[in-house]
Amino acid sequence: MSARTAPRPGRRTGAGLTDRARRIVRLNYGFQLLFNLLWWMPVFYEYQKTAGLSDGQIFGIQSIYYVAFCLFEIPTGLIADRIGARNCLRAGAVVMTAANLAPVLSASYTGFLLHFLAIALGRSLTSGAASAYLYDGLRAEKCDAHYLSAEGTARALGLGAKVVCWPLVGPVMAIAHSAPYVLSAAGAAGSLVCAVALPRASGTETPAGRTGTGRGGGAFLRDAGDALRCVASSRWLGLVMVQGVAVFTLSRICQVNLFQPILLDHGIGEASSGGVLAAMTVAEAVGSARPQWLSRRLTPVAWVSVLSLALAGTLAAMAVGGPWTVIALLCLFAAATGFVYPVQRKLVNDAVPPDAPRATLLSIESIVDRAVCALAAIAVGAYVSAGHLDTLLLHSALATAVLLGAVQLLLHSGVVKREHAGPGPGVDGHARVPASRAAPTAGADAGAGADTDADADADADGHDRGRTVGRSTEGARRGPPPGA
After folding, report:
1. CA nearest 433: which of 288, 331, 276?
2. DSSP helix/strand/coil, 471
3. Is 42 helix (H, G, I), strand (E, B) or coil?
4. What is the pLDDT of residues 204-216, one digit of tens each?
5. Tens digits of per-residue pLDDT, 425-458?
6. What mean pLDDT is reported for the chain?
7. Which of 79, 226, 267, 385 is most enclosed, with most CB atoms within 10 A?
8. Measured between alpha carbons, how far is 181 from 406 in angstroms, rounded to an integer?
9. Residue pair 472/360 in contact by the 8 Å Cβ criterion
C-alpha cells in the first residue's frame, strides 16, 4: 500500500468513525457493561438477612446510602472538573471493585455499611463522567453525530447482560454463597481495565490543579441560588418537580428496597429473584423505549397522574395477590415506571425557563429525590420489621392517590397555571431530556435502552439516572448540549 493511500491515525473508516473514535466507543461499551453489572442486586436483601442483619439494619443502611449519595455529589463533581473524566472513571472503578469485595471480607453490619458507602462514592465519581468522556471524545474526532447511537448501544448491551446474568444468580450462589459479590468485583475490575485503556482525547482532560472552565464551588453555589429562586418564582415548576420526586420515590422503593421482601413474603425464594428482576427489567425497557405509545388525548401531566395511579393500584393489589399474581403485578409496575419516566422528564424540561441553570436545577431535584428516599427507607424498615408489609403497600398506594389528588386540585382550581408546557408524549416519539439525562434516553433511540432504576444507582441495580451536581455544559463532566 502506498504512503498516499495508507490509513493515518484518526482517519475515518467504515461507518464514518475514525480509528480513535471507534476505540473510544468500544471501550465505553465495555466499561458501562462491566461497571454496572451488579450480580448481587436481586439477592442483596436476603444475603444480608442470612448474614444476621435485621430489617431495621438493612433499611437503615439503605437510608444512609441515599444520604451519602447526596453528600458525595457535590465534592465528586468538583473533583471531576479538576482531574478529568477519564481519571474519574478509573477512580470510580477502583472504588467499585473494593466496594463489591467488602461483603465477602466482612459479612457484617459494618461490612455492608462500608459496601454501600463505597458504592455511593464510586457511582458519584463515574456518574456522568462516562457520557461526558464519550461525548467529548467523539466531538474531538468530529464524530459527535454518533453519540446517541453509541450511548444507546452501551445501555442496550448493559440491559442484555443483566437479563442474561441475573437469572443465573441462584445457581451460582448454590455453588458459592458469596459468588454474586465476587463476580460483581470481577466486573468492576474489568471496567478498570477498560478505563485504563481509554485513549487521551482532546477536550476530556483538564490540567491538574484547576478546573476545566474555571467553575468551582462558588460557581455551583451561585447556580444553586439561581435555581432555588427559579423554583420559588414558578409554582408550575415546583409542582412538576414535587410530582416527579413522588413518582421516583414510589418506583425506587418498590423496585429496589421492597423487591425481595415482597417476593419472600409470597414464598418466592432467592433462586427465582434474578429471573423476576430480569423480567421486570425487560418490561421497563419496553415502556421506557416507547413513550410514543401514549395517546395525545391526555396532557403530559395527566398521563403522569394516570400512570402514577396505576403504580399505586399495582402496589395495593400486591397485598392480596398470590405468587404468580405478584410477579405479574411487579412486571406491570415496571412497565408503568418505564412509561412514566420519559413523560415526567419532558414535563420538567419544558417547565424550566430558558434562562434558568437547567443542569443545577436537575441536580437539586436529584438530591431531593434521594433525600426523600432516605426518609422513605427508614419508614419501610419500620413497617417490614413489624411484619406489616401489606399495610405498607396499602398506605403507599393511598398516599400516592392523595398526593395526586392534591396536584390535580391545584391545577384545576387555577392556583397553579401551566407554564412552558410542551406537546403530549406522542408528538415527537421520545421525551426530550436535558444534557444531564441524555444517556438514559439514548437507549430509547437505539431501540433497546431502559431507564430502569431498578436504575437504581446502587440502591443499586447499576442504572444511574445521570443526574449529577455540576453536570452542566461545562467542565470535565460535560455532557452533550440540550440540542445534541
Report:
1. 288
2. coil
3. helix
4. 454 443 444 444 5
5. 443 434 333 333 333 333 333 333 333 333 444 3
6. 76
7. 79
8. 43
9. yes
